[in-house]
Sequence to fold (394 residues):
Amino acid sequence: MNVTEKAQEFIAEVRGSLQDGSFVKLSLGNYRGADESLKNIYIKKVLIRKEPRLSLTYRHKTRDITKNHTAGELTGMLGQWLGTDFRVATLQTLSEDIHFEMHPSGKATVRKKAAAGRKNPSLSHDKAKNRLISPAGKGYLSELKITDPQGNVYQNTQDKFRQINHYIDILSSLIKEIAPGNHLKVADMGSGKGYLTFALYDYLKNVLALDPEVTGIEFREDLVNLCNRIAADAGFAGLSFREGTISDFDATGTNILIALHACDTATDDAIFKGIQAGSELIVVAPCCHKQIRRQIEKHKTGNDLGFLTRHGIFLERQAEMVTDGIRALVLEYFGYKTKVFEFISDAHTPKNVLIVGTRGRHNEKSQAAALEKIREAKRFFGIEYHHLERLAGI
Fold:
């Protein structure tokens, strides 16, 4: 029996499970198609406007995409995918597992294995969120106009509330990596209205049961006064806000230094404060990259990227990547392990790059390598200096 016949045998099992109600879930793997970022597809039953559908989650390396289809559409797509794009598929029903596999030899097989104790899955399209910060009983969220007094998130602040939880989710894993003691000193540079600062204090104090000292630094006096009043009303004794600038703040003893959307070289000021303090964790989400872009535009160095940088929008993006890439290298020069990843989908905010530095040990060889990479980047793009490099004196 050839691959197509075995694929059709498997598809018949999928079709039958959907018809008799025994379908639990389906997964496709061992992808060999044209989309280099696609890894798997996961399929489950959902109800959308009271109509049964199959929800397909396309799992890519850096994002998930979900699409909904009818049973007929799904079986049609399986006919195109199995044995070509996807070499492995597993169907779970209420009573058995059915496994399709195309082997390196070119032979295809379909195997069955009994399964017991399964129940029909929920058909809810929206899974209950396992949020680290719940809106219920959070007076500060109401004061900050994220929720109403009953803890219901306003329709126009849904994105902001998702951003808060995504932020805390990221920081929770990073904090576990540095294994801080019970007392934790955190500085949030450019805290603004304090949405994320309040949520972080709440998480550290009430979820992790730590004894945090969290300070928000903000140059707008009205926001400082507002946040201090809300912190007092919430009984957050370890949370305070100070009026001032990043460059003027004394970060001595700070374990975690955060700067989200500090404009242009203010991000460099914050990173350097963290380096000076020997902070165990430095987390920044840069905003604006004017200092490096002006130098790239001024010198117009002829290089292999000229076909891109002659366009303004590409030049802007290139300046962002170069600026943040050198920031990561400076952190590595000082012994930090770095990560650069998406903070939150740009559907919610265009400021979506997070640079994370976790303190490690100085290594002369790694330090020399980082310094050489910084120099090479400057030569390639015609950069006289990077503000963080100048602050650090390297």
